[in-house]
Structures are given as C-alpha cells and as structure tokens.
Amino acid sequence: MLLLLSGCQPDPAAPIADTAPATPPVKKDAKPVPKFDRDSAYAYVERQVNFGPRIVNSDAHRQTKAWLVDRLEAFGAQVVEQDFTAEAYDGTELRATNIIACYAPQLSDRILLAAHWDTRPFADSELETDPNAVVNGADDGASGVGVLLEVARQLGLNTPDIGVDIVLLDAEDYGEANGGNRNSWGLGAQYYSRNVPQPKPRFGILLDMVGGRDANFAVEGYSEKYAPEVVRKVWRLADGMGYGNYFVNERGGAITDDHYFLNTIAGIPTIDIINHRKDTKSGFVEHWHTGNDNMDVIDKRTLRAAGQVVLATIFREAAGTL
Ligand code: AHN
Ligand code: ZN
To answer: What's the predicted TM-score (pTM) here?
Structure first.
C-alpha cells in the first residue's frame, strides 16, 4: 500500500496488464488526435528559461518546480512530487524532485512520457571558451518539458482511452563528463525506476533536446536495443505524418540518458527522441552544455514535430491503430 501512495493511487482492484495483445483491437469510437499548439509549447520553454538555470538546490529550481506542479494541476492531472536526495559525483547533496502527472489513473494500460527539468550546473563543453558561461538549458531540458506541458494541456482537454503518466525527471544533468561514471547521470530517472508508481507503464518515450532547428532524431542506440517495437511504431508514424525529415530512418549513437535507467532498472521499454549531430565530437548539438543554449536555438517547428508525434502515438495506441 505504501507504494501506491507515491503513485497516482489507481483503483487497487484494477488488473495490471503487463503484456499487450499482438494486434490490439481497433476501437470503433477512436478519438481524433488533438492538434499540438507549437506557440504554446514555445511559451512554456521560454517561461522555464526565464526562471534562470534550473540547477538542483537553487532558487530558480524551487520556483520552477512550483510553477510546473501548478501548471500540470491546472491541466487536470493528478500530480505527485516524488522527492529524493542523491549524492552527486562531486559530493554535493542534491535535494531533488521528480514531478509525476497522471491522466486517467484508473486505467491499468499506461504510457510513460518523460523529460528532465533540471539544468546542467556548468558549461563544460569543449566548445565553450568563456569560463563564466552558464547553461540556460532552453534546448537541454526545457524543450522536452515545454513539449510535455503542451501535451498535458491537450490531455486535459481531450482524454484518450489509455492512461498517461508524464514524469518530469530531476537531476539528470549533474553527471560526470568525458567518460566519467555513467551512474552519475540520470539520478532522478534512477530513483523513479526503483520506485515506479503502479501500475507500471507499458512503454515510454523520453524527449531530450527536441527544440533545435532542423533536429535530427536518428534512432538512438539503447532505444533500438531495449524498445525496438516502440521505435518501429513511432518512426513509421512520424514518417506517415510528414515528419520523416526529423524522424530520420538512420542509426544515431547510444546515449546514457534517462531512458537507459528506465529500460535497465524499471524494465519499461523506453525510446529517446534526441537530436543527434554528425558534425560535432560530442554527437550532440553545438550549443550543448554551452552558454549558447538559449531561446535563440529553439525552433517552434521542431517542438511541434516532437509534440504532434507524441500526441498521435498516445491516441493511436489508445485506438489500437498504432
Ligand atoms: C552523457 O553525456 C553521458 N550523457 C548525456 C545525457 C544528457 C545530458 N542529455 C542531456 N544532457
Ligand atoms: Zn545536458
């Protein structure tokens, strides 16, 4: 019972479906996919950036948390703040919170949507020359959260026939760079994965750096390894929707991101929609972990591509047509 208290408090009598039928039945009363508003998503990204860098333990971090919880509740979600403390690789004690927003908590068949809401505490990219630069995290963090807030707003207006858990993960970006300990990344994802609210979502989608111009959402390595069916469905759907220029049918590198822990600890097959670049040493966008990660790099069309595909995934999966 204790575990239920940390989750969305679903009907305890509801069966837990951990396997899906191979061919889900098409529901006759399938609901249409709502239209994702890119201006709304952009405003949510901007609002986060305006709080200042959302570095764990900072005032901006606290203020942003309150705002995120307030917005998700306004959008009709049942919100749980999953507080935890974790020790960063440099010894800092991080007081952090995963924000979990549930839609249709009575349904046992659920989809997980995730993004990280914290900001990297240092601009340590090799492409950054200014020692005083700070990461504003417009793309790295805020873009995924902004898209999920707009998805949440739409879910408040149009209820799909499937449960949705949106988790805004904390302390993703305090990790040790350049081949440092992998487990120093995704601390919120690790905590969530060891304390997943029941019923456990059937599959998940992580959004990371989904705001950059001409984003290249090549297929990320761990997504293909742990969630090949989800990859296949989502990339095929995106292509059919005319977003094949973003959701390219190519292999990107494998990235230690929040989904790695959702896959390996929680056992939730989860894909990572993330912008891969071939022209940088890191494999990420040039503004990654630099002072240039501000609103100038955010393109509404990319936010919409990611958000509209996520909304379509939810409603088509609910209808049995994904
Ligand atoms: C590593 O650099 C090992 N992972 C990057 C995950 C990340 C950081 N995503 C956004 N910021
Ligand atoms: Zn980062």
So the answer is: 0.93
